[in-house]
Amino acid sequence: MGYQLEYRHLRYFLAVAEDLHFRKAAERLFISQPGLSRQIKQMEEDLEIKLFDRHNRRVVLTKAGEYLKEAIERNLKELDHILDHAKLLHDGTGGNLRVGYVGSAMHQVIPNLLLQFKERHPNIIFSLKEMDNQKQVKDLLSLDIDLGFVRLDRVPKGLEIHPVLEDVFCLVLPKNHLVSVDNFKDLSQLKNEPFILFDASYSPSYYEKVMQIFDDSGFSPQVSHNTIHASSIYRLVENNLGLSIVPKSLQQGYNMGVKFIDLNKISQRAILSVIWNKENRNPVLKKTIELLT
Fold first, then answer.
1. Is 28 within the bounds of a domain?
2. Which three-class secondary structure string do you get for the chain?
3. Bridge-partner residues for 273, per DSSP?
4. Nearest-CA neighbor of 221 among 245, 246, 249, 257?
5. In whole angstroms, what is the distance from residue 225 CA to residue 246 CA?
6. How many domains does the chain have?
7. N or C: which end of the chain has fewer CB within 10 A?
8. Is the pLDDT of residue 88 over 70?
9. Is 205 exposed, middle or buried (0-12, 13-18, 19+ CB in 10 A)?
């Protein structure tokens, strides 16, 4: 069956589906409310699908409407990306890759990736944005970013994950702390000290791994502060407000009054992984994955 739909019909439908209010949607689209209602009614007749349940002044998406809203949003976003890529090619640019990352990825993995890409594909533009693990997952599923660097063990259906860096953990102490590399034996020496940790919301699986380190050392930590930024952890440690445990790669790029002791003898490792959406058709993504996997 052929449908007489145009791009404007999709925009009209999405506006009503987002606002669930014909007058508000019409004002946003700069058309009359009766005109918008007619367009939606015509769309439903052409598709032979009821998209909205109308109850007095209340508008609700049907199950078919909910599905169509999600599918159209996803596909229109991909179409926008395709057109943007075509414009970049026209302007002499090889393409654009939108990358999300947790802070530790910027110390080694991402700079190495950018250097490799510059040699092979000098006209590629990278748009980089630091964000937490869950935000990356959300933006990958909605195709708002192309690639993510996360500390997660599992990802939702539709995403692919591949480890790119296995990191040892290290202990972070103030520079004047009595424990040093020379006299450190194991973590139980510090069981009476407060600890400053990455918040569980940063990555539940990462937080659980750190808790396993304490479990294996025979004590539960006294957690004095939680944060999602390494710089905040180091500043608190520097001011003798507690100790911390972080991936070794986070030693780089900071100049603060702290010292590190590598925890080489423990079994836990901090894994940094790259994740992407299997449905993403950005041609630059494929080239990037080939370099990383």
1. yes
2. CCCCCCHHHHHHHHHHHHHCCHHHHHHHHCCCHHHHHHHHHHHHHHHCCCCEEEECCEEEECHHHHHHHHHHHHHHHHHHHHHHHHHHHHCCCCEEEEEEECHHHHHCHHHHHHHHHHHHCCCEEEEEEECCHHHHHHHHHCCCCCEEEECCCCCCCCEEEEEEEEECEEEEEECCCCCCCCCCCCHHHHCCCEEEEECHHHCHHHHHHHHHHHHHCCCCCEEEEEECCHHHHHHHHHCCCCEEEEEHHHHCCCCCCEEEEECCCCCCCEEEEEEEECCCCCHHHHHHHHHHC
3. 150, 163
4. 245
5. 14
6. 3
7. N
8. no
9. middle
| Amino acid at position 122, single letter | P
- Residue with the two structure tokens 């972070």: 172
Per-residue pLDDT of 109-133, as tens digits, reads: 898 888 888 888 777 888 999 988 8
Residues 159 and 276 in one domain: yes
Q: Please check whether residues 213 and 176 belong to one and the same domain.
A: yes
Mean pLDDT for the stretch of residues 80-108:
76
Higher pLDDT, 229 or 166: 166
Position 87 in a domain: no
- Tens of pLDDT, residue by residue over 210-235, are 999 999 999 999 999 998 888 899 99
pLDDT at position 258 over 50: yes
Structural domain including 70 reads 7-76
